[in-house]
Design goal:
The chain is of the alpha/beta class and 193 residues long. It has nine helices and five strands; from the N terminus they run βαβαααβαβαααβα. It starts with a strand and ends with a helix.
Length: 193
């Protein structure tokens, strides 16, 4: 099962991906984690990425796609994977599709967790307050100023990815504002699992 989870920051992609990982035994792939692992392992793509990062640059889409291509060849991803928060741009979506086609693979589903963005900001503020009250550290992402900046970047750069997959008939929208268990149920129904 090869999946993409789309949606703005705070929509619950990570929470839901964790549940699908547990249910189906497939890895959740984070491009940041994959990038760090490729650099640490000294793979050819990792060495290219390291050179760019050491020079203070942003890693190109080609390098990121190369890292994803290498990662999905690993044994734990043979049965499938979840890409959470990737692709982030239309160019990345097109490059991902081309790479998968080249490998003779296809996506089984692209799930978008849809949310009311005004209520989402309130949800993040509440999550930060609950963490503080419980004596837990507040995630950097849960700072309202940081969160609003990330949300703006999502709306500017990433929101165009969902319509791309919708045109291809691959997108299923899931109401991410429902309680967590209901969202998981809707995802499982969408996956037929």
């Amino acid at each position: 099962m090869r999946l993409i989870f789309l949606g703005p920051p705070g929509a619950g992609k990570g929470t839901q991906a964790t549940r699908i990982v547990e249910k189906h035994g497939i890895p959740q792939l984070s491009t940041g984690d994959m990038l760090r692992a490729a650099v640490a392992a000294g793979t050819p793509v990792g060495l290219k990425a390291k050179a760019v990062m050491d020079a203070g640059g942003l890693v190109s889409d080609d390098i990121v796609i190369g890292i994803v291509a290498d990662r999905i060849e690993e044994p734990d991803a043979k049965r499938g994977f979840i890409l959470d928060g990737f692709p982030r741009t239309l160019a990345q979506a097109e490059a991902l599709d081309a790479m998968l086609d080249q490998k003779g693979l296809k996506l089984d589903a692209v799930l978008e967790l849809t949310v009311d963005q005004d209520k989402l900001v309130d949800r993040i503020i509440r999550r930060a307050e609950e963490a503080k009250a419980a004596g837990q550290p507040v995630r950097k992402d849960d700072d309202p100023v940081v969160f609003k900046t990330r949300l703006e970047a999502y709306n500017r750069d990433t929101a165009v990815v969902a319509p791309y997959y919708a045109k291809r008939g691959q997108l299923t929208a899931i109401d991410g504002m429902k309680p967590i268990d209901e969202v998981t149920g809707a995802i499982c129904r969408a996956l037929g699992a």
